[in-house]
C-alpha cells in the first residue's frame, strides 16, 4: 500500500506552499536558531491527561508546565503507546512497537529481554551528528545484558535507573511476587548510592541542571540532546507507593484523600522541575537555541496496577488500555523557530514521529534504511499546519490471553479486543471540582509570575491569550449521560469512532459503517500490520537476576559473575557437581 508516499507527497506540497511565506516567517519569528538546536525532552511517567492544569482543571495546578504550554504550542493530539516500554521504544526508534517486538506489556525487571540490539536509537543518531546525548532518569528498555543499557545505546551519559520504577528515596525496586529486591540507580555503568535518601525528582532535576551548566562551561562545543525521564508521578513499590516531600505536601492540605494529596504533590514537584530546567537554560543563555518538549509516556492509571488517582478526564480508559485515556498525552513544545507560538496544534502526531521531526529540526536526515514508521512533521509544526492525514498504529497486541488493537487513520479510530477483561473500558477519571487549588483564584497572575513564563517571554515574547488557550485545550464530550451513548463491546465486535467529533469514544459507529469501504479499508490495513508484526521479544523471568547474588544491585546478570554470600552456596554446589563429573570421567 502506498500510504507513506501518499503522505510524503502531502508534506512536500505543504512545504512548497510554506516556502512562499518564509520571508514573512523569519520576520515574525524574530530570533532564529543558529547552528544545531539543543533538544530538551522532559517526559513524565504515567501522568494523567487531566493532571496538568492547562486543560482547565483547578484541582491542583501545574503552573510551570502550563506556562510552557501557553508560551509554546500545545500538542493537542500527541499519541503515545498505552504502556511504558512500548512507548519508550517508539520514542527512541521512531518505529511502531509491533515492528521492533516491543508491543507486549513491559519489561519486568527479572526478564532477559530488551530493545533489540540491532535497532538504532534516537541517541545513536544525534550522537552520530555531533550531539552530546544525555539520559537522566528512567530507561526500561532492557538491562539483562550490559549491551542493552543506555550508555551502550547511544547515550554519552546516564544517571538513573534501568528497570520499571524505584523507591523515591532509597532507589530500590522490589519484585514482591518473586522476593527479589535491590538497588537500581547508576551513574553510567556504576551503581550510585550518593543520592540515597534524597527525593528522586530533585535528584534528576539537579542532574539535568548540571548537564546544562556543564554544557555551557564547555563553551557549548556540542549541541545537547537531553532526555529527562522522570519517575514522577509513577507509583513506587507497593509497600509505600505514594511518596512526596513534606514541603510539597503542605501546599495541598485542602485535598482530603491522602492518596490524591500525595499524587498532587508528586505532580507539583515534577512541575517545579520544568521550571528549574528552563531557569538553567536561561541562565546559560541557551534558551534561544533550544527546543523544549514536555510529554507523558502514556495515560495515567486510575485503577488497578500502580493506580495513583491519576485522571484522564474526560477521555475513556486509562494506561494499559486501547482507549484515548491510555494513549493521548497532554504535551507541549516550545522553540523560537515556531511561527505560531501561543497556539493549540490539532495535527495528530505519534510519539514515533518525534525522532524524524526533531532530527529535521537539527538538519539531520535519518538513514532511509532505518525504515522509520514515524513521519517528519517539522515543517507542519514550525508553520502551524494541521493537514497531514496521519495513520497511527496505537497498539496491536496479539499475545494471549487478551488480544487487542487500536488504530487511527484521520478521524477514524478502530478498537477491537481490550485489556483486563474490560475493567478499564469505562470513563474512569474525574475532574474534581469540590476541592480547588487556592492559587486558581489568580490563575493568570500565577502563570505570568512563573520563571518559565518570564524567561520564555524574554526570548519569544508577544501576546498570549491564556484563558483563550485554556478554553481551546479543553475537551468536550458530545454526550453527557450514558443513555446517549451507542455502546461498544470490543470483546464481541470491533468498534469504530469518529475521534474528531467524539474524542470520548461514546458513539460506536461500527454497525452503521461495517459494510462500507470506510471500515473495510481500515480493517484491511490493520490486518496487514498484524500479519507483518515482529513477534514479541518478551521472555519469562530468570531467577539468576536476583540482586541478592550481586551485592543487592539490579544488574546485567547475564554478563556478571555472581559474587556474594548468597551465591557461594550455589558455587559450592557447582563445584561439587564439577568434581563429581571429573570423578565419573
Ligand atoms: C533485527 O534483527 C531481527 C531478528 O533477526 C530482525 O527481524 C529485524 O528486522 C532486525 N532489525 C533491523 C533494524 O535490522
Ligand atoms: C526502601 O524504602 C521502602 C519504602 O519505604 C522500603 O519498603 C524498602 O524496604 C526500602 N528498601 C531498602 C533497600 O532500603
Ligand atoms: C568559546 O568559543 C568561541 C567560538 O568558538 C571562541 O571564540 C571563544 O574564545 C571560546 N571561549 C572560551 C572561554 O573557550
Ligand atoms: C511571584 O513570584 C515570586 C518569586 O517566586 C514571589 O516572591 C512573589 O510573591 C510572586 N508574586 C505573585 C503576585 O504571585
Ligand atoms: C481570548 O480568547 C477568548 C476565548 O477564545 C476570547 O473570548 C477573548 O476575546 C480573547 N481575548 C483576547 C484579549 O484576545
Ligand atoms: C451488511 O452485510 C450483511 C451481509 O452481506 C447483511 O446481512 C447486512 O444486512 C448488511 N448490513 C447493513 C447495515 O447494511
From TrEMBL:
GO terms for molecular function: metal ion binding; sulfuric ester hydrolase activity. The keyword Metal-binding applies. Residues 1-29 form the signal peptide. PROSITE patterns: SULFATASE_1, SULFATASE_2. InterPro entries: Alkaline_phosphatase_core_sf, ARSB, Sulfatase_CS, Sulfatase_N. Keywords: Calcium, Glycoprotein, Hydrolase, Metal-binding, Signal. This is Uncharacterized protein, isoform A.
Amino acid at each position: 500500500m502506498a500510504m507513506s508516499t501518499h503522505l510524503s507527497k502531502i508534506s512536500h506540497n505543504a512545504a512548497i506552499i510554506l516556502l512562499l511565506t518564509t520571508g514573512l516567517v523569519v520576520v515574525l519569528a524574530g530570533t532564529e536558531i543558529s547552528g544545531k538546536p539543543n533538544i530538551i525532552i522532559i517526559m513524565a511517567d504515567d501522568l494523567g491527561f487531566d493532571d496538568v492544569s492547562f486543560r482547565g482543571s483547578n484541582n491542583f495546578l501545574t503552573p510551570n508546565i502550563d506556562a510552557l504550554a501557553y508560551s509554546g504550542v500545545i500538542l493537542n493530539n500527541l499519541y503515545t503507546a498505552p504502556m511504558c516500554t512500548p512507548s519508550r521504544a517508539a520514542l527512541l526508534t521512531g518505529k511502531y512497537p509491533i515492528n521492533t517486538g516491543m508491543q507486549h506489556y513491559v519489561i519486568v525487571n527479572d526478564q532477559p529481554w530488551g530493545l533489540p540490539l540491532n535497532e538504532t536509537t534516537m541517541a545513536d543518531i544525534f550522537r552520530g551528528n555531533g550531539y552530546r546525548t544525555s539520559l537522566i532518569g528512567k530507561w526500561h528498555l532492557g538491562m539483562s545484558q550490559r549491551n542493552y543499557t543506555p550508555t551502550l545505546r547511544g547515550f554519552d551519559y546516564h544517571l538513573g535507573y534501568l528497570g520499571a520504577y524505584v523507591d523515591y528515596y532509597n532507589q530500590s525496586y522490589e519484585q514482591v511476587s518473586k522476593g527479589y529486591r535491590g538497588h537500581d540507580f547508576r551513574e553510567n555503568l556504576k551503581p550510585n548510592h550518593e543520592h540515597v535518601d534524597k527525593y528522586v525528582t530533585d535528584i534528576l532535576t539537579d542532574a539535568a541542571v548540571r548537564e546544562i551548566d556543564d554544557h555551557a562551561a564547555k563553551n557549548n562545543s556540542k549541541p545537547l540532546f537531553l532526555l529527562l525521564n522522570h519517575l514522577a508521578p509513577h507509583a513506587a513499590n507497593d509497600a509505600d507507593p505514594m511518596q512526596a516531600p513534606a514541603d510539597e505536601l503542605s501546599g495541598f492540605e485542602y485535598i482530603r484523600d491522602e492518596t490524591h494529596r500525595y499524587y498532587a504533590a508528586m505532580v507539583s514537584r515534577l512541575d517545579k522541575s520544568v521550571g528549574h530546567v528552563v531557569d538553567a537554560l536561561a541562565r546559560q543563555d541557551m534558551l534561544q537555541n533550544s527546543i523544549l518538549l514536555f510529554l507523558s509516556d502514556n495515560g495515567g492509571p486510575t485503577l488497578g496496577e500502580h493506580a495513583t488517582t491519576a485522571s484522564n478526564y474526560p477521555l475513556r480508559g486509562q494506561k494499559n488500555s486501547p482507549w484515548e485515556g491510555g494513549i493521548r498525552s497532554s504535551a507541549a513544545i516550545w522553540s523560537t523557530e515556531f511561527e505560531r507560538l501561543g497556539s493549540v496544534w490539532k495535527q495528530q502526531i505519534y510519539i514515533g514521529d518525534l525522532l524524524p521531526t526533531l532530527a529535521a529540526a537539527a538538519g539531520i536526515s535519518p538513514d532511509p534504511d532505518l525504515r522509520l514508521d514515524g513521519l517528519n512533521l517539522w515543517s507542519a509544526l514550525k508553520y502551524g499546519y494541521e493537514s497531514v492525514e496521519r495513520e497511527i498504529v496505537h497498539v496491536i497486541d496479539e499475545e494471549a490471553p487478551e488480544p487487542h488493537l487500536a488504530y487511527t487513520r484521520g478521524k477514524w479510530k478502530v478498537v477491537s479486543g481490550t485489556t483486563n477483561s474490560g475493567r478499564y473500558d469505562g470513563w474512569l477519571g474525574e475532574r474534581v471540582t469540590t476541592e480547588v487549588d487556592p492559587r486558581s483564584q489568580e490563575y493568570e497572575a500565577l502563570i505570568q509570575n512563573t520563571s518559565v513564563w518570564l524567561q520564555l517571554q524574554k526570548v519569544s515574547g508577544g501576546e498570549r491569550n491564556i484563558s483563550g488557550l485554556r478554553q481551546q485545550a479543553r475537551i468536550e464530550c458530545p454526550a453527557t449521560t450514558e443513555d446517549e451513548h451507542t455502546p461498544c463491546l470490543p470483546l464481541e465486535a470491533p468498534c469504530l469512532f469518529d475521534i474528531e467529533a467524539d474524542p470520548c469514544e461514546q458513539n460506536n459507529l461500527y454497525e452503521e459503517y461495517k459494510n462500507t469501504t470506510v471500515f473495510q479499508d481500515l480493517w484491511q490495513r490493520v490486518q496487514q500490520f498484524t500479519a507483518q508484526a515482529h513477534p514479541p521479544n518478551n521472555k519469562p523471568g530468570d531467577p539468576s537476576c536476583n540482586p541478592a547474588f550481586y551485592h543487592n544491585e539490579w544488574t546485567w546478570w547475564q554478563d556478571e559473575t555472581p559474587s556474594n554470600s548468597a551465591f557461594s552456596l550455589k558455587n559450592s554446589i557447582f563445584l561439587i557437581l564439577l568434581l563429581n563429573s571429573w570423578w565419573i570421567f
